[in-house]
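Troubleshooting: if your tokenizer reports a length mismatch, compare your output against this known-good record of 167 residues.
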Amino acid sequence: MIHIDQLHKRFDDVVAVDDVSLAARDGEVTGLLGPNGAGKTTTLRMLYGLLQPTRGRAVVDGLDSADDADRVRARLGVLTDSPGLYPRLTPREHLAYSAALAGVPRRQIDAAVAEAADAAGLDGALLDRPTAAPATRTCLLATGSACGSTSTATTRRRWNSRSITVA
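Known-good structure output:
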């Protein structure tokens, strides 16, 4: 079960997420819909423990995402409506972000990125060049048997088997 209670994120003078609350029961798929800049991705990043909320809480199966991010990520699957490539990120940053979402421990992310880049034949020049894909607009998240476990396990298998899919 996912509980988000009055989640709020501020970046200096910009309020990115303003007191979002929701509940998503196990086995259900919940969509976060809205225009670009509405705070969907920022909300998911806080739920996943990649960003700390300014205030409020995100809890997955009784685990606080701010305090136990690795265990929270192991319970969630996230699917975006686009490949999830952000123009401002380099391939190296995308690989690190994907590794974090897949539950690779933070201390192992640099090594996982280097291994994935080597397997794909990416060198330093390509790894540090910005991408040009559109930003994510809509995100779905799921827990339990609906797709969370399968999605997370599939992502981990991809990292563990050292295969990379490029769309």
